[in-house]
Amino acid sequence: MTFASIVIQFLNGLAGASSLFLVAAGLSLIFGVTRIVNFAHGSFYMLGVYLAYSLVETFGRSYLGFWGGVLLAAALVGAIGAAVEILLLRRIYRAPELFQLLGTFGLVLVIKDVVLYFWGPEDLLGPRAPGLRGAVTVLGKSFPEYDIVLIACGPIVLALLWLLMARTRWGTLVRAATQDREMVGALGVNQAWLFTGVFALGSFLAGLGGAIQVPREPAQLFLDITVIADAFVVVVVGGMGSIPGAFLAAFIIGQIKAFCIGIGDVSVLGFGVSFSKLTLVVEFLVMAAVLVVRPWGLLGREQAQPRASGEAEAPLQPFGPSGRAVALAVLALLALLPLAADAYTLVLLIDVYTAALFAVSLHLLMGPGGVVSFGHAAYFGLGAYGAALLFKHLALPMEAALALSPVVAGAGALLFGWFCVRLSGVYLAMLTLAFAQIAWSVVYQWDSVTGGSNGMPGITRASWLAGSVAYYYLAFAITAAGIFALWRAVHAPFGYALRAGRDSPLRAEAIGIDVKRTQWLAFALAGAFAGVAGGVFVFAKGVADAQYLEIPKSVDGLVMILMGGVQTLLGPVVGAVTFTWLFDAIRRATEFYRSFFGLVILVLVLVFPAGIVGSLAALRSRGKASP
Amino acid sequence: MLPHAAGDSGDALLEAEGLNAWYGRAHILFDVALSVRRGEVVALMGRNGAGKSTTLKALMGLLPGSAGRRRFAGAEIAALQPYLVCQLGLGYVPEDRRIFTDLSVAENLEVGRRPPRPGLPAWTPERLFQIFPNLAEMRHRSAARMSGGEQQMLTIARTLMGNPQAILLDEPSEGLAPVIVEQMARTLKALKAEGLTILLSEQNLYFAREVSDRAYVIEKGRIRYQGAMADLAANDEVRQAYLTV
Q1: Residues 6 or more apart in contact with residue B97 via CB below 8 angstroms
Q2: Which of A363, A507, B14, B69 has the CB geometry, 3.0–4.6 Å to A572, for a possible disulfide?
Q3: E strands present in A445-577
Q4: Residues B74, A553: Cα–Cα separation, whole Å
């Protein structure tokens, strides 16, 4: 690299950092005050891009039309954010973090379909800004004029935000509420409007971050997830709730991305390494490294424990004699099912079984462990790809490849879990998500080994398992055994230690339980069983696909648990069955299945926060209590 | 139920009746009844865990799990959110101070600022600095760099910025050096002279006796005694039973 090209990459990095900062500052601001991690923040960015595209297409030939369109788009997104806060979030401020995250993820799905409906699936590239269509020459290389304006945007917005926060009463109240919102309420401030204002401002910043990208990058439907993943990284690296932290982190990440793209393909020790493809991996590696050294981010500070901790969870009950009898009856029924069911039902049931095992394994972490994982799909995918790679590249027999899938996934979970259990709460959830994104991007981009976006076809079953009835029985047996083993673990001393660590980490430590180590083991165990589910799944489908590791797959597992009820044993199973069946039905019924599904999530979060099994149990105990 | 002292309820500024409260499933307050007249300083005495702070939080609307009648300045406040209770003129000074340590002293006061009440002189930072002279010297200092006593003064001053008619003052003497406690007693007497009504939770009998007109004694969530402060101070039996450790 010459000096000139280094300078150009540096400027590119600054231009990229501006939008990243705007989005992350909004996310950080919202989190600071409301304690909500807004998954839909990337969707607000995407809305900003699309709205600005339409407005600039219509009015953008003049200076006023272009910049007015950009600002109007951001203002519209701000208004949408305010509406979302009033209609949805106000109802879930007291809900557990997981519900809030899932609620906003429901919003992601709805917004995606709204954008698809109004703007269609094609990429849309807006016109360039009037008066800024050319390029300037920097050290003999050309650099777009518009990007210079972008570079200026970041510091300008940072300065304006600083003035707002430091010099106005509203900013003082926001800073006070970030620290202790209940006290601010007791001093006579109506938090509801403060929260709405903060949410509108944060959404406005996300919309603005998107809108100013219109002349530079096309509007695309996948922007929501890529942007939210980037924004998470920036906010977590900078420190949750810290705007200067977001600026610093956006600068670092922007530079790293620009230089990775600038380096391009090089040869290291004879291996071809494509740095431009590594951007995603590299930024998540930066995040993992920062979190290990500074768990609260570069400029963040330790989060105070919430003042009013929730009620202690009721102890889990093992099945009684009648429960066992019902379980055996259900098992017998399922074992006899192939005599009556058609092939489609059997295939769907295999999906249900793998989903159930996946959900129960995640539940070990979430329920008894109290550890919210947003990246459980990583272990499902590691199991699937582990089996597929062993089968294709090492030519292992199918049975051996399947048997090794939990080993691959468990090893991955041991590695990732070692970092994750060092953190807690939202940071831990973000880190699990980061590791899942790393695993996904490696699978998605390593064409020569994993087949990249095409996936790996030809993952065929051994001849004795080729028929759907035979494979049904295998999936059935493995799932039943796996769920049984996980439930045993919950009721073993290991499970007691895990639950003790969840309910009172300090007291658990005081009686000699190594809480972190127990959680780490739970990670490995949950990962291994998710890997089994992935292995069974990949041989059922005959193809390994990068979708298995995507964020939506992780969220599927969370929704299954939420549907069934977090603090029940049976919940994840009931949830997995309901979810898989419902999803299959919706997907066959409508093109806009995502928004339908998103609405289902929102209804669940708002109306049935205890899930199906939890709500039934609450009804039953209410029935018992009444005279 | 305990008999009410004569004339208790008629001109009460703040009163509670049949007040019950729960933390989760644990029942903490049992049919607490108390009233505070305009201009009075009333002490709610009791040991650690007796239910003093819980009573004040329930009055302020800070406890989701509470039931019972609560009235302030003629309005029913049981169903109101804390910010509305505060806007009616009932201020809250928490036990653990809950200073905004990210903010300066002046900014802490700004968060508490509310419009003045008709007919009453409004509190301004300058007027408060006369009562709390220590704060004047550190108005631009970060509230994180203050001593416990200074923070206690700031948290009272911050609540006064809302121009309350009455304040709920939760254990103001806790954790303070004796000389600061004396200063605090002088301050409360000065505030009383300004016409402020105070419901004070306290363990420190000597401090409470200095500033209070009447007292309630609470134990295990139930009011066990009520009467004039001087009577309580003279009543060895009650003190032995409910106050001394």
Answers
A1: B148, B151, B152, B154, B155
A2: A363
A3: 456-457, 543-544
A4: 56
B220 Cα to chain A: minimum distance (Å): 21
Q: Using 50 as the pLDDT threshold, list the residues of chain A that sit under it.
A: 305-311, 625-627
Q: Is B83 on the interface with A (CB under 8 A)?
A: yes
Give the residue from A127, A154, A132, A144 showing the smallest Cα distance to A208.
A154
Q: Are A26 and A187 a contacting pair, CB within 8 Å?
A: no
Q: How far away is chain A from the Cα of B138, in angstroms, using its nearest Cα?
A: 18
Element (H, E) at A342: none
Q: Are B95 and B170 in contact (CB under 8 A)?
A: yes
- Distance between CA A177 and CA A195 in Å, rounded? 9
SS3 (DSSP) at B166 = strand
Check: complex ipTM more than 0.90 = yes
CA torsion, ordered A537, A539, A544, A545, to nearest 10 deg:
-40
- Residue A352, token pair as written in the block: 């249900």
Say whether B86 and A172 touch across the interface (CB within 8 A): no
Domain definitions of chain B by residue range: 12-243
Minimum-distance CB partner of B107 among A172, A186, A188: A172
Residues of chain B with Cβ-Cβ distance to A187 below 8 Å are 83, 86, 92, 111-112, 158-159, 162
- B21 vs A626: CA distance, rounded Å: 21
**What is the per-residue pLDDT for A306?**
42
Which chain A residues contact residue B107 at CB under 8 A? 172, 175-176
Cα separation, A536 vs A214, in Å, equals: 44
Q: Among 3.30.450.20, 3.40.50.300, 3.40.980.10, 1.10.10.10, name the CATH number for the domain at B12-243.
A: 3.40.50.300
DSSP structure class, residue B199: E
Measured between alpha carbons, how far is B86 from B106 in angstroms, rounded to an integer? 20
- In tens, the pLDDT along A370-394 reads 888 889 999 999 999 999 999 988 8
SS3 A320: coil
What number of other Cβ atoms are within 10 A of residue B99's Cβ? 23
pLDDT of A313: 62
Angle formed at CA A203 by CA A420 and CA A557, multiple of 5 degrees: 40
- Does B114 contact A188 at a Cβ distance shorter than 8 Å? yes
- Residue A452: is it exposed, middle or buried by C-beta count within 10 angstroms (0-12/13-18/19+)? middle
Q: Stretch B166-193: mean pLDDT, rounded? A: 92
Q: What's residue B120's pLDDT?
A: 78
